[in-house]
Amino acid sequence: GAGGGNDIQWCFSQVKGAVDDDVAEADIISTVEFNHSGELLATGDKGGRVVIFQQEQENKTQSHSRGEYNVYSTFQSHEPEFDYLKSLEIEEKINKIRWLPQKNAAQFLLSTNDKTIKLWKISERDKRPEGYNLKEEDGRYRDPTTVTTLRVPVFRPMDLMVEASPRRIFANAHTYHINSISINSDYETYLSADDLRINLWHLEITDRSFNIVDIKPANMEELTEVITAAEFHPNSCSTFVYSSSKGTIRLCDMRASALCDRHSKLFEEPEDPSNRSFFSEIISSISDVKFSHSGRYMMTRDYLSVKIWDLNMENRPVETYQVHEYLRSKLCSLYENDCIFDKFECCWNGSDRQVEFFSLIVMTGSYNNFFRMFDRNSKRDVTLEASRENNKPRTVLKPRKVCASGKRKKDEISVDSLDFNKKILHTAWHPKENIIAVATTNNLYIFQDKMN
Amino acid sequence: MFVRGLKRKCFDGEEDIEGTLAGIKAIPSYNLQRQSLLDMSLVKLQLCHMLVEPNLCRSVLIANTVRQIQEEMTQDGTWQMINTQSTGQASLDRLVSTDILCRSSRDQAEGKHVPGYGTFNKDFGSDQAQDSSETMSTASSVQAPRNLQSNMWEMENPQENKGNFPKSLDQIFETLESKSPNSVEDLFSEVDNSYYDLDTMLTGMMSNTKMGHCDSLETFSSPTNTASNSNCKSDLNDLDHIVEILVES
């Protein structure tokens, strides 16, 4: 089970990716996601590739550590495309990966770039048939006249081969850039959201999708708000939420109407007049929204904070956690270098049961390869760093501190020394254990809690 | 922290300016920073019409910021003032170092009250909008960001859009070009004019981070009116070339 954020002692476990400081653009990690059992960990990158890591079976003799993650499968999910009509490139960057729950021996995941969603089947092959009557082992056909006896082909073990094949391609349904995909709790449908529209798909049907939200104004000159993220409720298959660039979250019920243009609930916190600036709207833009395990709460990430909302209370969040408040006085510079538009994701701790009691810890990224954890119970928080300097396994990570102003204490880092090129946008928490995956620009770090 | 190559001289220059502008109305530093933010925003909106479709969320947020600034400037009358002025003084105001902008926002964070800020009214009624548009001498400048916006959102024909520069941005380029001799210009002759080169400002913006899609910015050359058009032409040539290659393959 999950303990408090500060009760967990996080240790470095592994790091994946190039050691080079010179980052190849294609290697930039753009999404990270554990599957439902936590055995598989998928990453997508800017080059359109998906890499899946598999956790080793726990070694019964080594009870000190959980299994390591090793590469299981790598495949090219999306290729760059060119839209001839608009004379524009379509990036192959993988925006999101979502796993389907496992139904048989194979694993399925959805991966999406800006325009097209694909359903991939990942299957293992560890046996192959040998002893055909009409074919040689290398595949050449035998001359039938040379066959004198018949035999039954048998399966013989072979080296494990993991194959990824695209089973469905859901294309041509999005004019704008897809930012989210979310699988429904019915495990038959899923939604895909772009800047202005949300579509509902059936996993088996690729030539048709239903538009369930459309906020495109008749006159594009009147556009002032876009959709930034969307997610299905974990239990209620007719309920979903979507967030906007103005800091609002709308909860919609698909039973109410075919086109959910009118929300059932609108979540919005009134603006704090004392903090008003020209950047207020930009920093209120929500970059991620995640339901809690029970579905009673949801969490949103905006530029400076994480907010927890009770679905029964629309007028303000129940909790707010400041991720890096010291950046508030730097918003102008962050606007100038575009960092203010960085989209940070957030995630909940894993949970064994669908019980609210266990959605206790919030994790999100920041700059300088820092990431933050907030314990909802104890209200304590911690800042940790993903860096190769801390790469001794089973060494507990040292908490970091940023000095906002005044005298910098020893071991503190001043705001002006932060490296804004080193951003942690994507993090994931193992669904059942205290194992976390943290993506820096082109490396994937895996941390575990220290087992006693 | 982020911006390299900023010339401190500019800021010092400003202090000299305030001293010598005894007879001329001194522009409050808040207006300066607001104008600078407006200029920066317009440049940001303009600079992302590259090969890959621009990020709509980012464009909408920047356009909203521009609109906010415009509304506020319209409310307190400075919008009209800036449009009617054609002296070198106006050009100086526009191109102030963003370092000042950031310094001022730090001051704000320390709790200094900036006049007019607290009265910012988000609900800018349509009546007010009509009144202010009548008082504005150059109504088209208000339209400019809207035109810009529609150019951004509807990338139906990007070649056409690349040629359509909004009026206010044109004004910025013209200002950079103009060497009209007047007494106010002469006063500022000691100030290092190279700072006002667009590419110096852009270099500052570009220094620390990638702008994602805007990689071709790094080849952005001299800030002249024709340069913007010739960049379009070279973009079009590149585009044609790429399409040729793709079609052949």
TrEMBL record, chain A:
Keywords: Repeat, WD repeat. This is Serine/threonine-protein phosphatase 2A 55 kDa regulatory subunit B. It comes from the Eukaryota. The gene is Ppp2r2a. Transmembrane segments: none annotated. PANTHER family: PROTEIN PHOSPHATASE PP2A REGULATORY SUBUNIT B (PTHR11871). GO terms for molecular function: protein phosphatase regulator activity. Belongs to the phosphatase 2A regulatory subunit B family. GO terms for cellular component: protein phosphatase type 2A complex. The keyword Ligase does not apply. SUPFAM superfamilies: WD40 repeat-like (SSF50978). PROSITE patterns: PR55_1, PR55_2.
TrEMBL record, chain B:
Residues 30-77 form the SERTA domain. Residues 112-143 are annotated as: Disordered. Residues 127-143 have a biased composition (Polar residues). GO terms for cellular component: nucleus. It comes from the Eukaryota. InterPro entries: E2F-SERTA_domain_protein, SERTA_dom. Pfam families: SERTA. This is CDCA4 protein. The lineage of its organism: Eukaryota, Metazoa, Chordata, Craniata, Vertebrata. The gene is Cdca4.
